[in-house]
Amino acid sequence: MALINENYLKLQGSYLFAEIAKRVASFKNENPNANIIRLGIGDVTKPLAPAIIEELHNAVDEMASAETFRGYGPEQGYKFLIQKIIDMDYNPLGVSLEDDEVFISDGSKSDVGNFQEIFQTANTVAITDPVYPVYLDTNVMAGRTGYYKADGHFDNVVYMECNAENQFKPDLPKEKVDLIYLCVPNNPTGTALTRTDLKKWVDYAKENQAIILYDAAYEAYIQEEDIPHSIYEIEGAKDVAVEFRSFSKSAGFTGTRCAFTVVPKSVMAFTQDGKTYPLNALWNRRQTTKFNGVPYIIQRGAAAVYSPEGQKQIRDIIAYYMANAKIITEGLQSIGLQVFGGVNAPYIWLKTPNGMDSWSFFDKLLSETHIVGTPGAGFGPSGEGYFRLTAFGNRESTEEAIVRIKTKLII
Amino acid sequence: MALINENYLKLQGSYLFAEIAKRVASFKNENPNANIIRLGIGDVTKPLAPAIIEELHNAVDEMASAETFRGYGPEQGYKFLIQKIIDMDYNPLGVSLEDDEVFISDGSKSDVGNFQEIFQTANTVAITDPVYPVYLDTNVMAGRTGYYKADGHFDNVVYMECNAENQFKPDLPKEKVDLIYLCVPNNPTGTALTRTDLKKWVDYAKENQAIILYDAAYEAYIQEEDIPHSIYEIEGAKDVAVEFRSFSKSAGFTGTRCAFTVVPKSVMAFTQDGKTYPLNALWNRRQTTKFNGVPYIIQRGAAAVYSPEGQKQIRDIIAYYMANAKIITEGLQSIGLQVFGGVNAPYIWLKTPNGMDSWSFFDKLLSETHIVGTPGAGFGPSGEGYFRLTAFGNRESTEEAIVRIKTKLII
């Protein structure tokens, strides 16, 4: 009898965005003429940069002729892209990597979700609360957690609370943990960890023979000097950390799909009998067995991100989104709201006024200003009392949203 | 202490293609002027069809403007592609599907590799021998097997021998199995199962509450009337079978990456306490949690396969490869070799002459004719004494290869 993986039954419904959609639909039904502005989404809106478009066309043309056609490529990605990543994203930070330490993929969601496969089920996982749900859900599916509890947490997971009191910087766990997920700059809080903050984590990982799974999908948005662009800027990180990066938010690839994961050959985990084993070899085996690489056309497009024109064009787009972030941040602050993030990330995380819960604030914002955001409670129990707005809208509607908040929101 | 998934250590090295490369390199070193013809690869060589190229360009252009730009799409794929698949690949066979029963992906290798995740580890897996290694390796990684044994098999796996004696048609297992991998038309043997053959499997699955994982990646090459194009042509299959299909071999997408998996909502597996549970819901949860969809550009290219021009163009390419298959088959038969496959698949599976083992024949073919093929033993112990040639070369080198085999191979 074919039995299902019952760990899937422990998962909670993907309640957050469904519930948002339901409430928005109901509001629209009652207010058919309302001009709703959506500042809840984590998706980009600007088109691909011209340098990328040009290279995508070139690559499509190559696929049209037998001489330049590409069939199966390396599962790990083409060297022409990997070398650009190393030369332009890492070497300038003083980080050297070999070309078989970078794995091109179709998305950080896939990589972050799949990476846990190469670890034993018994490992203890630490995640922040609030958190990007993929870290948690993929470990639930793998049986690395217990059941969901009434307090909104799963058994056998170490949750690290992030709130205004600790400036959204997770404390080192009191328990011994084995796998630590960190997202810097953070989704959903928009906050970041400094070099000093991260050093503590690298040291903890070394002492506890733990692995840090470092999600740097929002790296391109970092503006401040003391926020590292890569965990490998931290001494010792190359022994304990894997880094996930993506073109989704840096170059608008959310619908174009390209990302990469860095697994230095010096990162070691352990066998049951205490021998070290390189994660690079395990991940390489995982990817070559279960993945066949990113489309050649798409990898060519991603490589164009590193041309001088590509670099300028994507920086302009990021600057545009970050100007939106500033408009939102300053607008909210001007009416006395407490605001976090928005400086090194396209996410603004605000404390709901008057101790209001996240969903009540969602309803209030929607009914008074016709703006849709994301209730913080949707990212975990510690997100309760917070609310996420994003800077990925266009300028006009972002400005209009702030005018409405200033003039119509009753605090 | 972060512990690795030690099931990975049970895997055997991917010895086959590395060993081939080594022997070819050594031969070239000793024979620098030899003109080597490669008939070992499973990769296509013809460029993408013009209709596909045109649509890829159109989609790239859409990504260049804010009005038509696409960010995150549905993880399960765009309806414009799913509907074409249902209308053109399934409805003409008398198979009706709903649009949430088809999941677009980046490749059958990914889907075939990932699908086992939604089943319990304790399930018993049945595979053919010889076999496409992904079925086996991904189950080894998941801990669904025991250790590798001296006989070339893993413990706790049911191997179904396929050889000339049973016409490469696996017998129903004597043991009770839960998950059955079938590849029709078959890689590596190039043979296929008829409707009558498949009905036995569907009946077995129903009786034993097993699931058939049906890999139909070579469906487009079927020429004979009694070979079904989909397992859903068989009565009852919609209750017990999942079907994997790909644009890799049907439309030359090996480097362009698009495939799909059909999971009818009526396919049920079981919970430990005997309740039924739909695989569709589990796979949907797996894909939405760990995957973010195929690039919009690529899905548009795949949709062009279904235009009248696209259909004609890809059929011409398949006819070209199948003409190669005929040349190879007839050439080998003309010198008295026993040949299988090549009629409904681009693979020719030959019995090595004089009881020679696969690797000895590899060396003989290479040294006498300068042709590279694939030793059958590389696909499993029952592949010993067989050898695979593929029809994906160009016409000129395929014809030249047969001339050499006829004139230079000493049998």
Walk me through what this model shows.
The structure is a homodimer. Chain A has 2 domains: about 10-45 and about 310-410, Aspartate Aminotransferase, domain 1 (Alpha-Beta Complex); about 50-305, Type I PLP-dependent aspartate aminotransferase-like (Major domain) (Aspartate Aminotransferase, domain 2), CATH 3.40.640.10. Chain A is globular, with a radius of gyration of 22 Å. Chain A has about 400 residues and is an alpha/beta fold. The mean pLDDT of chain A is about 95. In chain A, the strands form 4 sheets. A 7-stranded mixed beta sheet of chain A has the order 2-8-7-6-5-3-4, sandwiched between helices. Chain A contains 12 helices and 15 strands. Chains A and B meet through helix 2, helix 4, helix 5, helix 8 and helix 9 of A and helix 2, helix 4, helix 5, helix 8 and helix 9 of B.
For the terminal residues of chain A, how far apart are their CA atoms? 59 Å
CATH superfamily of the largest domain in chain A: Type I PLP-dependent aspartate aminotransferase-like (Major domain)
CATH fold category name of the largest domain in chain A: Aspartate Aminotransferase, domain 2
> How many domains comprise the coordinates of chain A?
2
CATH architectural designation of the largest domain in chain A: 3-Layer(aba) Sandwich
The overall pLDDT average of chain A reads: 97
| Quaternary status | homodimer
Q: How are helices and strands ordered from N to C of chain A?
A: HEHHEHEHEEHEEHEEEHHHEEHEEEH
- Tally of DSSP β-strands of chain A: 15
Features:
alpha/beta, seven-stranded mixed sheet, Aspartate Aminotransferase, domain 1, Aspartate Aminotransferase, domain 2, four-stranded antiparallel sheet, 411 residues, 15 strands, homodimer
